[in-house]
Amino acid sequence: MLLALVLTAAVAKAVPKTPPPPPPPPAWRAKLEQYATEHLEHPAWGTAHARRDYRLTMELAKASGVEVDEEAVFAASWLHDLGAIEPFAQPGVEHMTRALELIDPILKDAGFPDEKVPLVHTIVSHHMYYSDPKELPPSALYFREADTLDFLGAIGISRIFALTGKHRWAPDINAAEATVRKNLDELPGTLATPQGRLRAADRILEMEAFLKALAAEK
Ligand SMILES: [Fe+2]
Ligand SMILES: [Fe+2]
């Protein structure tokens, strides 16, 4: 009997315990994504842009060895351009300002943690390349870098040309080309972190090559 007990204990000890499954992600994540998918589709600042901004913010922060609030970045990614998308956009109102007027009930309905809403506001209100990067918390600083980088490179070119005939930045193809050139001239200098500038280098080359080829083929 004793031998059986000893053997049973030994076998139990030898079998590695399966680690418990990770807790399910909080429901607000899926709810925000669903809201964006249902309401915020756009060729240049829709859900694909949101996913890239989120991914790039996290990559830049990690490469910089800086901690950001992943949950606030996730929420801001989905909602930061809401004020630029119909029917939410309002003529004469900056899209960041408009977003701040609208996002609180969306965050609340989704169940997003109340204590993180102020950080989402900071990220949203400073996400554009022309906002002042000084004294921003890392979550907002790296999100601003990611959003700026998404105007550069092949993806930046694609987004501007996707607006052709639909937006004042690109009423026709020549205007889209001019906007791409302006973005190339002005945006890299607004990047505020070494990692952001590093990630811009290849994108600058891509834009230069594209504009050269376009000029030659027109
Ligand atoms: Fe924006
Ligand atoms: Fe954006």
So what's the overall shape?
Answer: globular
Specify the helix fraction band: 55-70%
Bound molecules: fe (ii) ion
What's the count of strands? 0
- Integer average pLDDT: 93
Uncertain parts? none
Oligomer description: single chain
CATH topology: Hypothetical protein af1432
CATH architecture: Orthogonal Bundle
The largest sheet is:
none
Radius of gyration: 23 Å
Number of domains: 1
CATH class: Mainly Alpha
Structural class: mainly alpha
Beta-strand level of the residues, as a percent range?
under 5%
- Taking the alpha carbons of the first and last residues, their distance comes to 91 Å
- DSSP helix count? 10
* N to C succession of SSEs: HHHHHHHHHH
Give your account of this protein's structure.
With 218 residues, the protein is mostly helical. It has a single domain, classed as Hypothetical protein af1432 (Orthogonal Bundle), CATH 1.10.3210.50. 64% of the residues lie in helices and 0% in strands. It contains 10 helices and no strands. Helix 6 packs parallel to helix 7 (138-149). The longest helix has 24 residues, at 194-217. It is globular, with a radius of gyration of 23 Å. The termini are far apart. The model has no long low-confidence stretch (mean pLDDT 93). The structure holds fe (ii) ion (FE2) (2 copies). The site of one fe (ii) ion has 6 residues, from loops.
